[in-house]
Design brief:
The complex is a heterodimer of chains A (276) and B (271). Chain A has 276 residues and is mainly alpha-helical. Chain A has 13 helices and 5 strands. Chain A is 54% helix and 8% strand. In chain B, strands 1-2 form a two-stranded antiparallel ribbon. The chains are: A mainly alpha (276), B alpha+beta (271). The interface between A and B is large, with 53 and 37 residues. Chain A: It holds the Pfam family Fer4_5.
């Protein structure tokens, strides 16, 4: 039991957070709870505190909408939180699509797909930034919030809270895409919201830290990491993970049997390059 | 064959970094352009749906589509479960709120709970407020339209279901009495919708007894015509005032070049 907790504590906490948020949102619609109303695009906490998706607001701005005060406050709260503290934590701790893509990735590891397909991925992880830029350009040109009209994140989340429709198809497509087409395909390569949070959370305080002296080069962390490029320092240098693409999912920390990885608060006075 | 081999090898020189960079950028830009066109086409398609009924206070559809953040707070606030968010498969702009009156109409709550909760102003409180008080009676969700051919009241069968169901009865829907010449002793009781009072709540559509409703709500933009500025109600003093500062617009066509008499006598190319 203790090992189970030790090996999966962050996974359990993450799933609890993701599912817990879904339950709260669902309860607001179905049973009139007032703890967390709305959805991931925009919500109200306890009927007072607004929270709004900064990326959606950015698209609205690009589309030429007049931004209301409530929305701006909600955006400010979330932006500050992810910018200063959470980093790209939205992706692994909040977003429901993460459960789908993690399952696909889990199955991939179990079925040993990577050995069959080879380690090298056929697509660049920078696609997300192209999609991000494209979404803003289309928002400007078409005068609508471009990504919000096809976002599978919203489809899935809204679907669970307000009724799914064909939203299950979106879930299935992402699952199959990640399983058969591209490893970490959606979250790690395409999703512009992930790209947005990668940029936003680049300088946040909570970081995974690597202690080189403890590392035995087992590479379990790299196998499990959805953004393995951020772990370039494993076994080489004692450095915090500084790339914005890290989702703070902490799977690397759990799978490390040698205590070489752990959460740390970024020391802003330290030299970013060497960690000293 | 074997003589050619060295030649082929020669051609396969390593591509310079500069060239690689330029090619990669061009490839990225090309793919982005392709994706952009597909994406735009999709958005054009899904936002083209014009027969949607929006919650009260909804701003102009074009602005609504850029302002609505699709959070569903209006849906949660509605005590009658009238509002829904468009799901994949509904063929409506994804995630935006709408209602289907025949299923659940808007019950026109006096405190309009769906409007103040909107965080983005896509539902504009000011548009449903008179003298600082929320007033659902000025909402313009849509306009009820009667299909006289399938409305049984127009057949002479007595029915006033829509009239009775209307929350502002006597103003939004009135009954017009007319002698039924066929029987000689009955009256037609025809429902007439008045666009200046109708909010488009859809209670009439819900109440309509025909198999498919003979009175139904359409978005006002779709349901209403426009006479233009050319026609003036001469019997209406206010409307006639428009003449005072009217300026002449002279349209010159081939016919109007001639004098009026000539153009009447000579039909020109008309026949």
């Amino acid at each position: 039991m203790a090992t189970l907790w030790n090996n999966y504590r962050y996974l359990i906490l993450r799933r609890a957070t993701q599912v817990g948020l879904l339950v709260l949102y669902f309860g607001a619609n179905a049973w009139g709870w007032t703890i967390l109303m709305g959805n991931l695009s925009s919500s109200k906490v306890l009927g007072v505190i607004p929270l709004s998706d900064p990326y959606a607001a950015l698209q609205m701005l690009a589309a030429g909408a007049v931004l209301a005060a409530d929305l701006l406050i909600g955006v400010a709260i979330l932006t500050l939180f992810y910018f200063l503290i959470g980093g790209r934590a939205f992706c692994s701790w909040v977003c429901p699509v993460n459960i789908i893509t993690d399952s696909a990735n889990f199955l991939r590891r179990r079925l040993d797909f990577d050995r069959v397909q080879g380690i090298k991925q056929p697509a660049s992880r920078n696609i997300r930034y192209w999609v991000l830029a494209l979404s803003l350009i289309i928002s400007v040109v078409m005068g609508v919030t471009a990504f919000e009209f096809l976002s599978p994140i919203s489809m899935v989340h809204r679907g669970i809270v307000f009724g799914l429709g064909f939203g299950w198809a979106a879930m299935l497509i992402i699952f199959l895409f990640d399983l058969f087409v591209l490893k970490n395909g959606w979250c790690g390569h395409i999703c512009p919201l992930g790209g947005f949070y990668s940029i936003l959370g680049k300088f946040s305080l909570i970081r995974v830290h690597h202690t080189q002296e403890n590392c035995t080069l087992c590479m379990k962390c790299k196998v499990v990491c959805p953004e393995r490029q951020v772990l370039h320092m494993i076994g080489k240098e004692s450095l915090p993970v500084l790339m914005g693409e890290c989702t703070n999912c902490a799977r690397c920390i759990e799978v490390c049997d040698d205590d070489a990885l752990g959460f740390s608060i970024r020391n802003t006075l330290k030299n970013k390059k060497t960690g000293e | 064959m074997s003589e050619n081999r060295p030649n082929i090898k020669k051609k396969r020189q390593p591509v310079s970094d500069r060239r690689k960079f330029i090619l990669n950028m061009a490839r990225g830009a090309g793919l982005a352009a392709m994706g952009g066109f597909i994406w735009s086409a999709y958005i054009d398609e899904v936002t083209a749906s014009t027969l949607l009924l929006r919650p009260p206070g909804a701003i102009k559809e074009e602005d609504f589509l850029k302002t609505c953040i699709k959070c569903g707070l209006c849906v949660i606030a509605c005590p009658y479960d009238t509002l829904m968010l468009a799901k994949p498969g509904d063929n409506k702009p994804l995630g935006t709120p709408y209602f289907i009156p025949r299923d659940i109409p808007c019950y026109m709550c006096p405190d309009i709970p769906c409007v103040p909760v909107c965080p983005t102003g896509a539902l504009d409180e000011a548009s449903v407020t008179t003298d600082g008080v929320l007033d659902i009676n000025i909402a313009e969700m849509g306009l009820a339209v009667v299909d006289a051919d399938s409305c049984i009241a127009f057949w002479g069968i007595q029915c006033d279901a829509c009239y009775r169901a209307c929350p502002i009865l006597g103003e939004a829907i009135t009954i017009e009495y007319e002698k039924n010449e066929r029987t000689g002793k009955h009256a037609f009781m025809k429902p007439v919708v008045h666009s200046e009072a109708c909010t488009g709540c859809g209670l009439c559509e819900r109440a309509c007894v025909t198999e498919k409703p003979a009175i139904f709500v359409l978005p006002r933009e779709t349901a209403m015509g426009r006479a233009g500025d050319y026609y003036i109600k001469g019997w209406d003093k206010d409307d006639e005032k428009r003449l005072e500062d009217a300026s002449e617009i002279k349209t010159t066509t081939e016919i109007s070049n001639q004098s009026a008499m000539d153009s009447l006598n000579d039909a020109g190319d008309l026949y």
